[in-house]
Design a protein that fits this description.
heterodimer, A: 217 residues, alpha/beta, Rossmann fold, six-stranded mixed β-sheet, four-stranded antiparallel β-sheet, 10 strands, 34% helix, 26% strand, globular, B: 302 residues, alpha+beta, 2 domains, 10 helices, 4 strands, 8% strand, binds adenosine-5'-diphosphate, binds magnesium ion
Chain lengths: 217, 302
């Protein structure tokens, strides 16, 4: 499903965030991306979603070279990818359910379908009771779950999560990992970046180690 | 079609709600646009009234026609028939050469000269009043008459009409120029309010782009905003025109009464008014388009 061929990413004025990276992730896999802070985990996820473009090499997602994708085609790629951001990127000028509705509105769902889907997604992450609340009133763990609900509401085949358990205490982190496992069991491919090696080790699954932009094997 | 309509309605309602959130900014922008547009609109209306007035002026231009000295009575009658047949003449008057001489000698200082004449040097003459004052009209009549064999000279007094027309043309050019300049100002005003809108909605734009929003999707609400704001500005301008013309009409009517005329100002007609609204909407939308597109390419997540 995802394939990197000798991918190098150099930010303007910086060193190489990723160096000559080769990897392949099959459909239905759940892959952890481990490595110290600054190792290049976020950069790798951004390349998959065409938020950044590789300096050289090719990034294929579903056999599409997303590194060379037309600007106008990028939105349609992103609609098939659920993104869970390190900083959540929630909108505090609208309610919880409005946040979850946003991807559906963008994809052009009818109001009726969108509402029932959004409720289902909120129910899955245990936030249905807070649907009318402003996200700013949610705890850190709840905000993370809201971000997950928004990422899964359009039922993407691929979920990319950047430090999803970053600032959460162990119990919350476990809840979220269990949620990811459940998604994986229904066929969703997941790539989860985390610098927390201990959390990763407790889950069976493939782990990719990044060190200063180089993939360790 | 039905969903398309309901999409539009939703978008318009959402835009109105957004305008209501910042009532002062909205009102100021609408006033700025309205005043900018009302200036050329008021001038346009006044100019049209001036042109209308010029067409109805009581002082009609005249054409003087002088016959040859050897013109016969038969030829005079022939010309009389021809002039009667012309539909583009409001009036004509025959001035026989003898009468002309008598008139002339009545004038101070000329009497001595005419007394010394053994022969009347003046030709038979006609004074024509064309039905319409346009220079083309006058020239057409003059050329037709000049072609007759027994006519010596035709003098047309259409200079003032030409000057007035040139002046009105100049006025129209000026209004056009003003409209273009203030149209550009409208684009700038619209662009600026949209820029402020974008600043307050940066997070929403960024997130929307990250989760698959197209440029078109992001642009749409801002276009609605620009177009609706332009519409309100256009309506404000129309109102300004209507009120100013209404206020000016009374003094104008009083003035015209002094000249025993009954002249009233006409306000902005329906078609020019709708044109005003449409241009305001287009320019408002254009300003919004420019600003959003610029921002989108700046913030574009590569
Ligand atoms: N937008 C950017 N501009 C310049 N350098 C960047 C940018 N984003 C990341 N980097 C650099 O690239 C390297 C990898 O960063 P990142 O992918 O965020 O690592 P991680 O997510 O593993 O902490 C770091 O050295 C970081 O400073
Ligand atoms: Mg990171």
């Amino acid at each position: 499903m995802i394939r990197f061929d000798s991918v190098t990413k150099r930010y303007p004025g910086g060193h190489d965030a990723l160096q000559n990276l080769n990897l392949e992730i099959a459909e239905g896999e759940m892959v952890f991306l481990a490595g110290h802070s600054g190792a290049g985990k976020s950069t790798l996820l951004k390349l998959i979603a065409a938020i950044e473009r590789p300096t050289s090499g090719s990034v294929l997602v579903n056999n599409q070279n997303v590194g060379k994708m037309r600007r106008g085609a990028v939105p349609y790629l992103r609609r098939n990818i659920g993104l869970i951001f390190q900083d959540h990127k929630l909108l505090f000028d609208r309610s919880v359910i409005q946040n979850v509705l946003l991807p559906l509105q963008i994809a052009g769902f009818s109001r009726h379908d969108a509402a029932s889907r959004a409720r289902a997604a909120l129910d899955k992450v245990g936030l249905l009771k807070r649907e009318k609340a402003n996200p700013i009133t949610l705890s850190g763990g709840e905000q993370q779950r809201l971000c997950i609900a928004r990422a899964v509401v359009s039922r993407p085949a691929l979920l990319l999560a950047d430090e999803p358990t970053g600032n959460l205490d162990a119990q919350y982190a476990r809840d979220i990992m269990d949620m990811f496992k459940a998604f994986n069991q229904v066929g969703v491919t997941l790539v989860i970046a985390s610098h927390d090696e201990d959390a990763i080790r407790t889950y069976a699954g493939r782990v990719l180690h990044l060190d200063h932009g180089v993939l360790q094997s | 079609m039905k969903t398309w309509l309901s999409h539009h309605r939703q978008a318009i309602v959402a835009t109105l709600a957004r305008m209501a959130q910042t009532p002062f900014a909205t009102v100021f922008a609408v006033i700025a646009i309205g005043v900018a547009l009302s200036l050329p609109a008021v001038l346009y209306v006044l100019l049209n009234n001036a042109a209308r007035l010029a067409g109805t002026l009581p002082a009609q231009p005249e054409i003087s026609v002088y016959m040859r000295m050897d013109a016969t009575n038969a030829q005079i009658n022939d010309l009389r028939q021809r002039l009667k047949a012309r539909t583009d003449l409001a009036d004509f008057r025959f001035v026989p050469r003898d009468t002309a001489l008598v008139e002339l000698s009545k004038q101070a200082g000329v009497a001595d000269i005419s007394a010394g004449l053994t022969q009347n040097p003046l030709p038979d003459a006609w004074v024509l009043t064309p039905r319409k004052a346009q220079p083309e009209n006058i020239t057409r009549i003059a050329t037709a008459l000049q072609a007759l064999p027994y006519i010596d000279t035709v003098k047309q007094d259409s200079q003032w009409a030409q000057r007035l027309n040139a002046l009105l043309d100049l006025g129209h050019d000026f209004v056009m120029l003003l409209a273009v300049l203030l149209g550009a100002a409208l684009v700038a005003v619209s662009g600026n309010t949209i820029r402020l809108q974008i600043l307050t909605r940066r997070a929403e734009i960024e997130v929307s782009q990250l989760i698959g929003a197209t440029h078109r999707y992001i642009r749409r609400p801002f276009l609605y905003f620009g177009v609706l704001q332009g519409l309100f500005g256009g309506l404000a301008a129309w109102l300004v025109v209507a009120v100013s013309i209404d206020l000016l009409d009374r003094p104008v009517a009083e003035l015209s009464a002094l000249y025993h005329a009954n002249f009233h100002l006409q306000s902005l007609g329906l078609i020019p008014g709708l044109t005003l609204l449409l241009s305001a909407m287009l320019l408002g939308g254009f300003g919004a388009y420019l600003t959003v597109t610029r921002t989108l390419f700046q913030t574009d997540a590569h």
